[in-house]
Amino acid sequence: MAPKDYYKILGVDKGASDDDIKKAFRKLARKYHPDLNPGNKSAEEKFKEANEAYAVLSDKEKRAEYDRGGQVNFEGFGGGFQGGGFDFSDLFGDIFGARGGAARQHYERGDDLMMQMDLSLEEAFSGVTREVTINHTAECESCRGSGAESSTTCSACKGTGRSQSAGRGIFTVAQPCRQCGGAGRIVTAACKRCGGQGAVHLTDTVKVKIPAGVDNGSTVKVKGKGNAGVGGGHAGDLLIRINIRPHPYFTRKGDDVTIQVPVTFGEAALGAKIEVPTIDGHAAMKLPAGTQGGQRFKLSGKGFVNPKTRERGNQYVEIKIAVPKHIPERAKEAIRTIEELYPENPRKYLGGA
Fold first, then answer.
1. CA atoms of 229 and 112, how far apart (whole Å)
2. pLDDT, mean over the chain
3. 3-state secondary structure of 230
4. Which helix (DSSP H) or strand (DSSP E) does residue 350 occupy?
5. ∠315-319-324 over CA atoms, to 5°?
6. How many CB atoms lie within 10 A of CB 139?
7. Could you give the CA distance from residue 134 to residue 149 in angstroms, rounded to a whole number?
8. pLDDT tens, 90-117?
9. What percentage of the chain's residues is helix, strand, coil (to nearest 5)?
10. Mean per-residue pLDDT for 220-235?
11. Facing residues of 306 across strands?
12. Which of 40, 71, 235, 239 is deepest in the core (most CB within 10 A)?
């Protein structure tokens, strides 16, 4: 039988370092370990093969003998390798939560808080700083989030936070101690300030900086202003969803804004210089002769600032020809004269006579 290529099995070069070999085996273990693939015979065989390769290549003497082409003692590999002198607790700590050394207290990130903030279009354009009041939980300063005024070493796990249990796979696995939950200590007296919860309820006022250019429906994050974490875990965040109130004459799409501007018949027909509002002031615009109702003009760089690129969008001016509701008789005569001088039918393209 041809010898197995242990380097190929682990996916490393022949000159790989001990750390590279360990990382490669750990990656395969995560993928093929029997406890993570119950009933999968193929995965179990691949794990055994990787296990065998690691047992040889992680041992300096066996690796040297293997590299010389010699025979290596594989006793115990067929029925399930039990460790070969290296620390599986350390190797698989990131898979099963069991590592050597002191116990790790169970911790979780705190919940995020969500709220809505209404802004005017002008506030969204320029940015604004607001104060908001939040009700949240914060880590108890008295017990630093442990919930304990006093505690003692867990008698079941002797402070390690781990207990050994038989796995379905090749070897036993260290799991969190049931008595202390993996903390390694038992609370003997609950913290008086937080009642053993590790967190207290607070009402705080927080300054929130809304960046210029924020859009409707976007979310602004205030890091660490959510609820307290568990067991010293990081606090959640405050998430503020932006709602921009409708503007009386501006509409926004992305970084661009649009405004409808009324002009007189004379301004549209003869051309004129007009002043139009912009989101941050006013701008002069030249209206060409013969401007039609509904025609759009662009004012470059008069839109919103993009928060990422810092470039400004555009403003579009849509022309609306204003027709007076009350026209004196003299003006009517002038309009009739214009109609006689301007005989073209504007509905001709619709098939009108």
1. 10
2. 84
3. strand
4. none
5. 145
6. 22
7. 28
8. 455 544 444 444 444 556 789 999 999 9
9. 25, 30, 45
10. 88
11. none
12. 235
Residue 352, both tokens = 């009108």
Instruction: Tell me which residue of 271, 258, 268 sits closest to 318, measured CA to CA.
Output: 258
Q: What is the DSSP letter of 158?
A: T
> Which ranges of 192-320 would DSSP assign to H, the alpha helix?
265-270
Task: Using the structure block, give the residue that is written with the tokens 């008295």.
Answer: 142
Q: Which residues contact 72 (CB under 8 A, 6 or more apart)?
A: 56, 62, 65, 66
CA distance 177 to 255: 56
Determine if the pTM surpasses 0.70.
no
Residue with tokens 């041992």: 59
Rounded distance between C-alpha atoms, residue 289 and residue 345, angstroms: 19
Q: How far is CA 333 from the centre of its chain?
A: 68
Cα of first residue to Cα of last residue in the chain, in angstroms, is 98
Distance separating alpha carbons of residues 9 and 47, to the nearest angstrom: 10
Q: Which residue has the higher pLDDT, 147 or 120?
A: 120
Q: Is the confidence at residue 37, as pLDDT, over 90?
A: no
